[in-house]
Give the backbone structure.
Amino acid sequence: MTVALYARRKGWPLDEVTVRLRHSRVHAADCDHCETKEGRIDRLEWSFQFSGVLSAEQRTRLLEIAQMCPVHRTLRSEIDIRPPVLVEDDSAGSAPPTRR
């Protein structure tokens, strides 16, 4: 979505974006640029295909923009996943739950 919005704003002839993603678990020791060196880590490999009459420079810039999208930035950052909170059925009009 970020790539399409950027291309539209620039007036570039981007017709379609295809993203392919592959997930695997690999030994951390096999990742030379990873901080974690024990156990296994998640590896994501992805590719883009841009359809439209675009120059090589435009395609390169769109790939750069794809790496700035909120989803990509979230996946690249440290993630702190909290335990889920159970929300009771609010059909009786009770007050919203509070987090602790």
Remarks:
- DSSP finds three helices and two strands in the chain.
- Helices lie at 2-10, 56-66, 70-76.
- The chain has one domain: 2-76.
- Strands lie at 14-27, 40-52.
